Amino acid sequence: MYATEIDSHSYAFAETNIESNHLTHRINLRQPSSSTQLLPSDLWGEQNIDFIMCNPPFYGSFAALEAATAAKTAPPNSACTGSETEMVYEGGEVAFVGRILEESLALRTRVKWYSSLFGLRSSVDIFIGMLKEKGIENYTATEMHLGKTKRWAVAWSFGDRRPVVPGLQGCYPHGIRGEVEFTVKNEGQEEMVQSLLKDGGFLLTTLKSRPRVWYGEVREDTWSRAARRKKARDRAAGMDMDQQFITDKKGNGEEVCEYPSTYNENGEEVFVGMGFTIEVVEDKMKIIWRRGDGKLFESFAGMVKRKLTVDV
Fold first, then answer.
1. Which of 16, 63, 195, 312 makes a 20 to 30 Å CA pair with 10?
2. Which of 223, 213, 214 is nearest to 243 (CA)?
């Protein structure tokens, strides 16, 4: 784990905290030489990073900080101990996290997920607009209650894997919530799922740790009427191409992750158009978007719901 701090006074406290908690073997604390770069990738060399977290300066000026403090109806439970660089930044939190966004455009998949806290719900909406302007469609937002304080967080990625936890209402890419739930028959669900998907070119895996959850992948639309007509034409012309998803494991038999990657016979990861999980609890079936194209997921989930829904 890497931690950065540009303020010398705060850096000294962070160093003491890490040492007193015996975490020097786990946390690599660095002080960037310049405050102009918020994500100093030179500090972690050629390594790729799983995620980045940021607690930005919320306020654009000390006047804004004082106004926010005066507007509170109840006194704070504790004194504010943040330094100037931790509390105030020209342009406020949106401008600060906007710098991280700009730097992420260069780093891209060297970091799996970029994330930051926000102090205002309105800032979340503005920042998601900035993500959309940059063409970033894989993002999520959430709301947190920290005692009496409410905070929000936004995360974005240049990869195709979706976050596990559903996002904040109204903050879904393309307006797609990524989760569909409906009522099914209370028995034979496994046979029902397998029967529906067996001819659709899907790789379907039962997760070992959760026996009533299946993970599936597909390269493209194989279920719509237009896709079926195209497949019939290709077959007639001798051009039919199967999905050729043959394994969810690497060549050494080691499972990659909870939602496995797909590899061909040469051990190369292949393109996935969309990945999903299907979960069954009693008579409820839930389909969750896990990776890839959101519009493809929406079409697929609608098809499954139409085929398997029980009128109640």
1. 63
2. 223
Distance, CA of 290 to CA of 164 (rounded, Å): 7
Q: Give the DSSP per-residue string, 95-141.
A: HHHHHHHHHHHHHGGGEEEEEEEES-HHHHHHHHHHHHHTT---EEE
- Alpha carbon of residue 165 to chain centroid: 8
CA 306 to CA 162: how far, in whole Å? 24
Report d(CA 186, CA 165) in Å as an integer.
26
**Domain coordinates of the chain in residue numbers?**
32-175, 179-308
CA distances from 90 to 80, 87, 153 (A): 20, 10, 20
| Strands of the chain, DSSP E | 2-4, 28-30, 49-52, 111-118, 139-146, 149-156, 179-183, 203-206, 213-218, 274-281, 284-292
- Of 229, 209, 227, residue with least CA distance to 218: 227
Q: What global pTM score does this model have?
A: 0.72
Edge-first strand order for the sheet with 284-292 is 179-183, 284-292, 274-281, 213-218, 203-206
Strands 203-206, 213-218: parallel, antiparallel or unpaired by DSSP? antiparallel
Total length of the chain: 312
In tens, the pLDDT along 146-189 reads: 887 889 999 999 988 887 666 666 566 666 667 777 777 767 76
206-254 pLDDT, tens per residue? Answer: 666 566 788 888 888 888 888 778 777 766 666 554 444 333 433 333 3
The tokens for 254 are 């080691």
Q: CATH for 179-308?
A: 3.30.310
Cβ-based neighbour number of residue 237 at 10 Å: 8
Which residues contact residue 268 at a Cβ distance below 8 angstroms, ignoring those fewer than 6 apart? none
The burial of 302, by beta-carbon neighbours within 10 Å (0-12 exposed, 13-18 middle, 19 or more buried), is given as: middle
**Sequence-separated (6 or more) residues with CB below 8 Å from residue 286:** 179, 180, 181, 278, 279, 280
